[in-house]
Design goal:
Length: 373
């Protein structure tokens, strides 16, 4: 029987002093975890059922890991190490993006049919002005996309996609912004990198185009591997999960391993659980609540939940452009989980929320001064 182990942080404290040092700094960020569930389950193809579950703290983790079967113990120990791994900064052209605190990525859709802002920024002037406003508001990265991946969207020919994204990328790079390109096509990646993009954001996890991994590896740029169940044109198809949290974890691990085999350096890999892609409301909520688990894979995380359908489903079917409150709530939830990059439409509001969140975190490191040594 094939089994897998998972370490899920679930007990969080304002700072390590609250637990007299018996807490870890999650992924080198500003979040501290003191309680963990160590979970053993069958492989998905064998039913995916949970076999056993133990609770642990940092000072009892070695004892708990020692109870695991030999064939999963090594991976579990690696996960435990990964949970405390501090990630180096992203070097995106001339910009350095630190990953010891949450960073905001602004969305620039130069498409006529994106689910939220289709047609708003597909002219050169509108795209440039919006990008400049997001940078001024505090966006660390501008993510430029030329193809909508909403359910039912029609595929875009790579030549048209290149014609959409290259001018926007050049404009963003010229203003000194760190730029990523949101695409799943190798030819678009090549043109975007040539135009000044320093990060590739692939919603297919490098599965859509057989040349994509080679392009990323050769360019030496960071890449975001997102989870989506669909293997063809429709990335939303095939969302059949035994347990959505563990199944997405396993798939991202497999895509990470494939990227490493293709020659992409570990420091250049970021992971995204793919909120809204082939997942129900309940499944999206489960993934949001389980975000800390994904640090066990050992790579920085990106959360893209801004204005997603799940917000409308929880708020009387609010339209996409009326989902600000829900978007900020999900971003802050991601910050509480230690997520490093937050891909959003509403940059000023999210940056403000991040700044207040960080102020609270900084203050929490000194507000237990009355505790004995």
């Amino acid at each position: 029987m094939i089994q897998h182990a998972y370490i899920r942080p679930f007990g969080f404290v304002p700072g390590p002093q609250a637990e007299h040092g018996n807490a870890i700094r999650l992924a080198g960020g500003m979040v501290y975890a003191s309680r963990f569930a160590v979970i053993l389950r069958q492989a998905k193809e064998q039913g995916g059922e949970v076999v056993d579950r133990w609770l642990a703290a940092p000072d009892t983790m070695a004892q708990v890991l020692g109870q695991l079967p030999d064939d999963v113990a090594g991976d579990a120990e690696a996960q435990w190490t990964n949970l405390t791994l501090a990630h180096p900064a992203l070097e995106l052209g001339a910009r350095t993006i630190r990953l010891d605190q949450p960073q905001v990525t602004g969305i620039l859709n130069v498409t006529p049919d994106s689910f939220s802002d289709g047609g708003s920024f597909d002219s050169a002037d509108a795209a440039r002005e919006h990008a400049a406003a997001m940078v001024e508001a505090g966006a660390s990265i501008i993510d430029v996309g030329g193809e909508s991946t909403r359910p039912g969207a029609k595929p875009v020919w790579e030549g048209d996609e290149i014609a959409r994204v290259v001018p926007a990328i050049e404009a963003c790079a010229a203003m000194g912004a760190a730029v990523s390109v949101d695409t799943r096509k190798a030819a678009v990646m090549e043109a975007a990198i040539e135009a000044g993009a320093a990060l590739v954001n692939d919603v297919s996890g490098l599965t859509h185009d057989s040349r994509a991994a080679e392009v990323v590896a050769r360019a030496g740029v960071p890449v975001v591997l997102m989870h989506a169940p669909g293997s063809g044109e429709d990335l939303h198809e095939g969302g059949d999960y035994a347990n959505v949290v563990f199944d997405v974890f396993d798939t991202l691990r497999a895509r990470r391993d494939a990227a490493l085999e293709a020659g992409i350096e570990a420091r250049n890999i970021l992971l995204d659980p793919g909120i809204g892609f082939g997942k129900s409301l309940a499944e999206n909520l489960a993934l949001i609540n389980a975000l800390p688990l994904f640090h066990a894979l050992g790579h920085p995380l990106l959360l893209g939940a801004s204005r997603k359908r799940m917000i409308g489903a929880l708020s009387n079917e609010a339209e996409a452009n009326a989902r600000l409150g829900g978007s900020v709530t999900l971003a802050v939830k991601g910050m509480d989980a230690g997520v490093q990059l937050h891909r959003v439409h509403d940059v000023p509001e999210t940056v403000q929320a991040r700044n207040v969140w960080r102020g609270l975190r900084d203050a929490a490191l000194t507000d237990f001064g009355d505790l004995p040594d």
